[in-house]
Design goal:
The protein is mainly β and 329 residues long. It has a single domain, classed as Beta-galactosidase, Chain A, domain 5. It is built from 2 helices and 19 strands. The strands form 3 sheets. An 8-stranded antiparallel sheet has the order 6-7-8-9-19-16-15-11, covered by helices on one side. It has a 7-stranded antiparallel sheet with strand order 5-10-18-17-14-12-13, with no helix packed on it. Strands 1-2-3-4 form a 4-stranded antiparallel sheet, with no helix packed on it. A hairpin with a 5-residue loop joins strand 2 and strand 3. The longest helix has 8 residues. The radius of gyration is 19 Å and the shape is globular.
């Protein structure tokens, strides 16, 4: 499909810019969708993995981190952006690390109902990943449909709605997370707020349970944690850029936080040694308690991410703006 044929909105001579979606191939020959909003924000979604691999503001600055050594060759997952961990988070269990949704080929969903249309001021993309009785994974032998809607809003906000339906005659259980790599200037100047007094499983200490004691999470070394039963709003503050990422979530009770730091970064072949300084990975999901779906049942989770030009902590953000913007996901 050509980019011109795939344009989802037209601009009349007497109208200003409108939201649009185009399909094309990247430099590696992989199919991508480009979402653009009227104010100049854009997002790129690879159909390989259903993965958001770019999110840029009106000035063209990257808001998501993608490694300079990322491999854009299936079935390897792409290091960075927003990676879908399904039906397993991390490497605990019989399935490959972070499951198989991140290395499968997704398709454009021909029937995204019952979700309402996004509207002319929002660029939206609906994808689907199916597994039927004829092509079940040998290590996870259930039929399912995973629908994903990506929306780029009129103020550049990024919204995701995930729906998993059990189309198998048997019940199945899964965990899920959106592994989101935020681009930051200096990890040592980053704070994650909204997790204070929250319990977490520490991956560096055999997943023992601890309680967050500080008023914010800061970084002086490797962090590998899963915070459980978290608030609906989490803020990632980059003091160097004076930018705050506000995450608003529904259906995702947990949030992983990860940075490999120097030693672990050197062991990752698809991450440049010093790139750990410029990323922070926050992973909204349902991780600690797996979700069980009976035949015919469907689960849904929603996530919206805003950017706020501010060096203030999350408690001084405008709550009405955050809450009202989430209603339109």
């Amino acid at each position: 499909m050509s980019a011109s044929a795939a344009e989802t909105s037209a601009v009349k001579p007497d109208e200003g810019p409108r939201a649009s979606v185009q399909f094309r191939q990247d430099a590696n020959g992989l199919d991508v969708a480009i979402l653009k909003d009227p104010r100049g924000f854009s997002a790129q979604v690879h159909l390989h993995g259903g993965q958001i691999t770019a999110w840029k503001n009106a000035q063209g600055e990257d808001l998501l981190f993608v490694s300079s050594k990322a491999v854009f060759k299936p079935p390897k997952p792409i290091r960075g952006g927003m990676l879908i961990c399904f039906p397993q988070f991390s490497n605990f269990g019989m399935i490959e690390q972070h499951g198989f949704a991140c290395n499968q080929s997704w398709a454009v969903d021909p029937d995204p109902s019952p979700l309402p249309p996004a509207g002319d001021d929002r660029a939206s993309l609906d994808l689907i990943l199916k597994q039927s009785n004829s092509d079940k994974q040998k290590i996870w032998s259930y039929s399912f449909e995973f629908r994903l809607r990506v929306v780029l809003g009129p103020e550049g906000e990024l919204g995701l709605t995930a729906r998993v339906r059990n189309t198998d005659p048997k019940a199945f259980t899964f965990t899920i997370a959106f592994q989101t790599y935020f681009s930051v200037r200096d990890i040592s100047e980053v704070r994650v707020e909204g997790l204070e007094t929250t319990d977490y499983l520490d991956g560096l200490q055999n997943s023992q349970l601890f309680t967050e004691q500080g008023d914010a999470l800061t970084f002086e070394g490797e962090v590998d944690r899963v915070y459980v039963n978290t608030p609906t709003t989490i803020a990632v503050i980059d003091h160097e850029k004076k930018t705050t990422f506000v995450l608003k979530k529904d259906g995702f009770p947990d949030a992983g936080v990860w940075n490999p730091w120097e030693k672990k970064a050197k062991a990752l072949t698809d991450l440049e040694d010093g790139e750990y300084k410029h990323m922070i990975c926050v992973q909204p999901g349902s991780i600690q308690k797996p979700i069980t779906l009976k035949p015919g049942e469907e689960w849904m989770g929603r996530l919206k991410i805003l950017t706020v030009f501010s060096s203030y902590h999350s408690g001084r953000l405008d709550p009405m703006r955050v809450l009202s913007s989430f209603d339109s996901v």
